[in-house]
Every structure is written in structure tokens, then in C-alpha cells.
Design brief:
By secondary structure, the chain is α+β, with helices and mostly antiparallel strands. The chain has helices at about 30-35, 40-45, 55-65, 115-125, and strands at about 10-15, 15-25, 70-75, 80-90, 100-105. It has a 5-stranded antiparallel sheet, sandwiched between helices. Strand 3 and strand 4 form a beta hairpin. The chain is globular and about 40 Å long.
């Protein structure tokens, strides 16, 4: 762990209520399927693959298991309301580069959850050894 590490699971206050942040795991598959099904189709236009397709989510779960992806699950009252993912390619010329993604349920928007998830995801990226381009 680096000096920026944060323990998970942990609870944060977003929009006047508690949200639990935990590491995203393959065992979250059913919750993730329900979460994705509740996202507006227009949100999915910004995701490079059709995450509504079971094969895509299967690949996502395998990537979590083998370390090519890391992420967080955000739950309010036990319901998945947001998630992050960091996709890395260990065989890439640029192994220090990753793709960060954040999805937030429409019911949670404007409450600060997206900002919290972005900050937490960025900390995870630094822990993975990914480099931010402005730091020398």
C-alpha cells in the first residue's frame, strides 16, 4: 500500500446518506447486472463495449480475477448505485497507462458520489503504478 491507500470496504457520506465503497469482485456479478440494466441507454453510449451483453460482463469478471482490471462497487442500503473500473493491459507498450471508467445510477447524480468514485479510482490507479502525465 502507498501513502495514498484507502481501506475498503469503507463508508462515505454522499448526498446526506451513507454509501459503502468496496472492492469490485467477480461475486458482484448479479448486482452489476441489475445496476447496468437500470442505466439509461444514452449512458451506455460512452462505454466502449456493450456491457449489457453477458459475454462482455463475463470478460469483465475474468479481468477482475486475473488482475487486468480493478474497481470499486458503491452501495446505498445494500443496492449497487455506482462503480468504477481501471482497465490495464500488462502486455501493452504502455503498461503505465490505464483506462478509468465511472458509472453512477441516475438516482445518485448530483449528490457527490461521482466525484468520490473518481477520487477513489484515481488513488487505486496510483497504487497500481499507473502514472499521471503531469507529475514529473
Amino acid at each position: 500500500m502507498t501513502e495514498t491507500s484507502r481501506a475498503h470496504p469503507r463508508t462515505v457520506n454522499c448526498g446526506g446518506g451513507a454509501v459503502e465503497l468496496a472492492l469490485l469482485q467477480a461475486t458482484d456479478r448479479a448486482d452489476l447486472d441489475r445496476f447496468i440494466a437500470g442505466l439509461p441507454a444514452t449512458d451506455l453510449l460512452f462505454v466502449p463495449r456493450d456491457i449489457r451483453h453477458p459475454k462482455v460482463v463475463d470478460a469483465w469478471m475474468r479481468a477482475l480475477q486475473d488482475g487486468r482490471m480493478r474497481g470499486l462497487a458503491a452501495r446505498r442500503d445494500g443496492v449497487l448505485v455506482g462503480c468504477t473500473s481501471i482497465h490495464i493491459d500488462p502486455l501493452s507498450w504502455s503498461r503505465h497507462v490505464g483506462e478509468l471508467r465511472v458509472l453512477v445510477a441516475t438516482s445518485e447524480r448530483g449528490r457527490g458520489l461521482g466525484r468520490v468514485l473518481i477520487q477513489e479510482c484515481f488513488i487505486q490507479a496510483l497504487e497500481l503504478g499507473l502514472k499521471n502525465w503531469w507529475r514529473r
